[in-house]
Amino acid sequence: MANLGAIAGGSVTAYTGGVTFTSSALFSPVALNLIQTQGQAVAMAIGSGTARQTFSWVPSYNSELTQKAKVREVRFGDGYAVREEDGINNMPEVWDLRFVNRSPAQVDEIIDFLKEHKGTIPFFWAPPGKDARQFICQEWKRNKASFGGEELTLTFEEDFTP
């Protein structure tokens, strides 16, 4: 373990596999600080007691965005329907990312990152041309391609957890 210093009255400690933040004071979870540790940026939500890591691997160019509005709908017997937005964040982004012709070691690193987040813990990722936002990944596929390269397909779902 290595102590990375104090932030807003708390302490930040790096260890194999992550970063912890502890604080006896209460802070707004809005403040963000970036800490550089082991070559990977880690975003720290001050006051929340949790570290959100940043997914920093660059996918291949053929990544795809899908969006579907979350809508509540009531249908009546005469064909009439009433629709309204379901929640304040009713247009989450879903990205299908492909990592083509990657080394087995790099694919292992990415999968280890995803397993560490267990499909439930959000992480930061910046979609092409956009600012970083929170996502989760609950599904991925690994394919052994020819010539020792591998292909990895991930599905990132935008997450609005504070």
Labels describing this entry:
three-stranded antiparallel beta sheet, disordered N terminus, 9% helix, five-stranded antiparallel beta sheet, 2 domains, mainly beta, elongated, 162 residues
Low-pLDDT residue intervals, each spanning 5 or more residues: 1-10, 19-49
- The figure for the number of domains is 2
Average of per-residue pLDDT values: 77
Q: Ends: how far apart?
A: 28 Å
Shape: elongated
Q: What is the spatial order of strands in the main beta sheet?
A: 7-10-13-12-11
Structural class, from secondary structure content? mainly beta
User: H/E series, N to C?
Assistant: EEEEEEEEEEHEEE
Number of strands: 13
Classify the beta-strand content into a percent band.
Answer: over 45%
Report the biggest beta sheet as strand number plus sense, adding barrel if it closes.
Answer: 5 strands, antiparallel
Proportion of helical residues: under 10%
